[in-house]
Design goal:
By secondary structure, the chain is mainly α. It folds into two domains: 25 residues, no CATH class; 35 residues, no CATH class. It is built from five helices and no strands. Helix 4 crosses helix 5. It is elongated and about 60 Å long. The relative contact order is 0.07.
């Protein structure tokens, strides 16, 4: 019963407004089950490559770093 004390009508109204505002996107997700998680994951790889490639002289080297990270290559040096 403690959860009922935490329930607030203004919170419910704000939630209903948010659902109305994003209605089309919510319905589309239920239809397709697609989201931007994969895109965010790829973007994080690019950001990591940019951090690791700082100081390299060319864009070509940054692109090579993205390939190394995205390909999950085992490049352990002996």
């Amino acid at each position: 019963m403690d959860k009922l004390k935490d329930c607030d009508l203004n919170t419910a109204k704000a939630y209903a407004k948010m659902l109305q505002k994003h209605y089309d996107g919510v319905i589309q997700w239920f239809k397709s089950k697609l989201n931007n998680g994969l895109l965010e994951g790829v973007n994080s790889l690019f950001q990591a490559a940019k951090r690791k490639a700082r100081g390299y002289r060319s864009e070509k080297n940054i692109i090579a770093m993205v390939y190394v990270l995205a390909g999950k290559l085992n490049v352990a040096l002996k």
